[in-house]
Amino acid sequence: QAVQAENVTVLEGGTAQISCRLQNYDGSIVVIQNPRRQTLFFNGTRALKDDRFQMVLFTPRLVRITLTNVSVTDEGGYFCQLYTAATHHQVATLSVLVPPEMPTVEVKQEAVEGDEVELTCVSPRSKPATSLRWVRNSREIPGAVSQQDNGKTFSVSNTIRIPVERKDNGAALSCEASHQALGGQKKIRHYRLDVYFAPSVRIVPPSGILREGDSLSLTCSVTGNP
Q1: Domain range enclosing 146
Q2: How far apart are CA 80 and CA 91, in angstroms?
């Protein structure tokens, strides 16, 4: 092949290198076009007024441009075209990854002893779609996962419904977001249950034997939330 192109994957906001390899280059015209078929460079000369594109290398074997501050709208096929007696072209596909932000937790209603609480973990924007999971005591809590396509990016939610008792007050849960752009790391949102329960009263008598004339001291202990 007279022209070879290499596919590129880059994080949103990063810099992409788009390379075209030439075989037996004889000084013919080389044109690089964006996915909308607008000419970016004509034989090394800028043709489109977008300063994010720079020609960094133009040799008989390799032509390379860079694109800074990449966005998802830059995705697609970039055309490397060599005009000899016949026209040769190859497409370098640019893919953009959008890592998720820290997920948020939405609570539908207050948690009351004896009822269920509904918690939703939300990741509003990522590409491809983020994987969300709820964890308690190192165990995953199965939830209902919803995914919405926002055009170039995805929003994802994971909703769980769990029964709560007073012993669950203060229990620690976490929502974990996993994504290939995070390099094996996770973004974790921690959440503590706040369970409302009715007060319980306990009266503690004094220890030992009381005799007539002794002072009586009673302790009243009340536990409740709030």
Answers
A1: 104-197
A2: 6
